[in-house]
User: Fold YdbS-like PH domain-containing protein from Amycolatopsis orientalis.
Amino acid sequence: MTPAEFEGWNTLDKRTLAVTALTLAGAAVGAAIPAVAAFVGSGARFGVALAWVVAGGVVLVGGGVLMDLFHWKAVRYRVTSDRLEMAFTLVFRSRKSLQRERIRNVDLTANPLQRLFGVAVVSIGTGSHESGGQGRLKLNPVSRAEAERLRAELLRRTEIAETDEHAPLAALDPGWIRYAPMSFLTPTLGLAAGGGLMQLSDWAGFQKGLIDWVLDLFLGIPLVLVILILLAIAMVAGLVGALGLWVEMWWNYRLDREPGGTLRVRRGLFTTRSISIEERRLRGIDLVEPLGNRIAGAARVDAIATGMRQSDDDDKTDYHTLLPAAPVATANRIAAAVLREPVSPTEAVRLTGHPRAARGRLLRWWIGSVVLLLAVFAILGFLLTGVLLVIGAALGVVLLPVSVLLALDAYRNLGHGITGRYLVGRHGTVRRSTFALERDGVIGWTVKQSIFQRRKGLLTVVATTAAGAGAYSVYDAGEEQGLLFAEESVPELLTPFLERA
Assistant:
């Protein structure tokens, strides 16, 4: 593409060079500490080690800024009456475009450095899941004003700026932070912190000294008690991490309904996020209650919509979440407001329970899973060390009764129903999900029946839709019960395939 061909095209914001330089400088400083420690630990003099590390940092920052400069000079974009186009011209040339009528989401993100320099990343997608990212373009970065302009123009919402700042559908209640530790993320972060400490001590060359110090600290204390103390320390670390992560993700949260029919979620303390969902593409909601949140009386609200952007390996944002974990009454109220219903479908219908045969299936599955785990501990204990036998026995005492309770709870949570425009289904115990899906949004039914379900007269019916996860299941319903539910939910869709007694 010649320079003349760039007339009328826009460039990315040049402040990206400063952002890249500072980002890489921070990474270099973070890597320098363990690197210097490793050099010194291997016998090198401190001055020589520092010189090598500084030189490496200069190469890293300089090379990164140079690459970013090439990228900035190579990328151009423009918005025409019917397309968004982006061109890349450097060693090779490429050109991508999206039809404006197919654009479903324009999401804005800005990390702390980008916010400091007044720029943002704009991710534009069609909602399709094509390979190679063909259904999405990313402008990284543009000025904040340009990002807002693109969002308004590409979503055909010129009146977006007129959002009533005083009447959000939902806004942050700081009290919701109490639900942050009530998830499996807390122990996961705690164990990750312990693993990270061991890795850091290995890099610095004092891992053996750390282990010896811990062994001396707990000298004379029974092994089981030592394990419990270490787990308690990990839980405290996980608690702090979960609270910090919640604050970063959900601070400044608000959910707005903008003129023109767009739901907009804005949130984030350091990295800000703006996520848009067109109401005409909304097909329902999913009330999600992880076990810890459910015990505390909380739930979150996820959108079921067509054309939703999916999280990828580089971006873990939950683009479908409309409300973080909040009191169940609040979640139902927001769900009703989002769907423009007087009462949320998830609480407007009394769900029909499933046959007792489903309870037996769940009990066998949960207890069998625990028995399999204990068998692994027993085998490894006989082959390796008796410590694993002790751990396995302790786990058996705890997990076997817990598995029975979880199975019974999972059975109580099975249910389905129909209310107005929506079909409703519920399942799960560790993560209970109650979905309300528009009946008009169902494009097909899949009926599944394993050999074990067939023996007990059970089946699973799956509503297929173009929205959300693409399929929503009603598990372990009675054969007649499940088929009648599918037929009544969407008349005539399944009827031609049914045989009546």
User: Anything to note?
Assistant: The radius of gyration is 27 Å. The chain has a mean pLDDT of 86.
